[in-house]
Amino acid sequence: MFRKIRHFWVFSAILVVVGVFFIFYFQAIGALNTESNFRAGVVKIPEESVKETSVIFGGDIMLARTVEQKILATGDYALPFRKIYQEFKKADLALANLESPFSDGGSATPNGSTVFRALPRTIESLKLAGLDAVTLANNHFGDQGNKGKLYTFKHLTDNGIEYCGAGNDYDEAHTPVIKEVNEIKIGFLGYGYPETMYVATGDSPGLANMDIEQMKKDIERLSDSADFIVVTMHAGAEYTHTPGKSQIAFSHAAIDAGANLVIGHHPHVVQSTEKYKDGYIIYSLGNLVFDQMWSEETQQGVVVKVILSDNKLKSIEFKPIHIYDYNQPDWVVGSEAEKILGDMGLNSFTLSF
Question: Are 304 and 56 in contact (CB under 8 A)?
Answer without folding.
Answer: yes
